[in-house]
Automatic annotation (TrEMBL):
UniProt KW keywords: 4Fe-4S, Iron, Iron-sulfur, Lyase, Metal-binding, Nitrogen fixation, S-adenosyl-L-methionine
Organism of derivation: Rhodoblastus sphagnicola
Sequence ranges assigned to domain Radical SAM core in this UniProt record: 27-268
Pathway: Cofactor biosynthesis; Fe-Mo cofactor biosynthesis
Protein's UniProt name: FeMo cofactor biosynthesis protein NifB
Pfam families membership: Radical_SAM (PF04055)
Any one GO molecular-function label of the UniProt entry: metal ion binding
Similarity field: Belongs to the radical SAM superfamily. NifB family.
Top-level taxon of the source organism: Bacteria
Amino acid sequence: MRAARTTPAFPDLEGKHPCFSTTAEGHAKAARLHLPVAPGCNIDCAFCRRDFNRVEQRPGVAARLLSPDDAVAATGRALRIVPNLAVVGIAGPGDPLASDHAIETFSRIHALWPALTLCVSTNGLMLPERVDELAAAGVTTLTVTVNAVDPEIQARVTPKIAWKRKRVNGVEAARRLIDNQLAGIARAEKLGFTIKINTVLIPTVNDHHIGEVAKTVAEAGARMINIIPLIPEGRLAHLGEPDFIARHKARAAAGKHLTVFTHCQRCRADAVGTPGLTDFTRELYGDDIRAE
Ligand code: SF4
Ligand code: SF4
């Protein structure tokens, strides 16, 4: 297993992108701004519960949506408030590639502040169609959430998707999602993206399958994997969080194929600061950020 690193996996990003830094020192250096501009999603993960509130610390949650105009203004303010801001990411609350808001936001930010690293996190359904647009908008780091590469397992995680304006269910939906994720990762690798995979570790569903996921995405072009313990929500609220041994086994299985990211804080879609260390949300948005 390659989890405990003392040397950086990505020297160009170490200390400059908290979630592509692999040493404790590197992870603590740079801040990221998550802009919650992605309104909706095109798939239906069984564990997902998107919400607007100020209190929950988990993905899929933001105080409110921002328009691209709001997001550009917030970036300008953040650059004045957050001294070590280096990365602007879009990771929700829905999927950044399910609408045009994220790519428009990235293009405008890249034109104004080209030194910022731009980062996106997607379920990958639209990646083959939109990854070239991401590259043109200045995005260089990419996270794709891949929870299974076996359609039978994936169908239990994401039982339906919206594809070409139609609803697709079950194994057929799962096969489409996996095919698009792998094709999108391969294209992104050719375009020069640095690619991380997020895999939600779901007890009794995919906990025996993590090594296969890591092997398959590594062959497609991914460089790192982040195993995220399930937060039991939605239709998987009855499952517990995976325990320490399950997490260790999953990381060991994945570490045979990829660098394992171990510092994830399971951040909100509107997080601002250095993950796990600083939080500038109130300074940035003040009273303007509230549930709607
Ligand atoms: Fe929720 Fe993300 Fe799954 Fe969409 S891709 S349903 S936002 S967890
Ligand atoms: Fe980084 Fe994890 Fe937070 Fe994403 S959720 S910004 S990978 S620490």
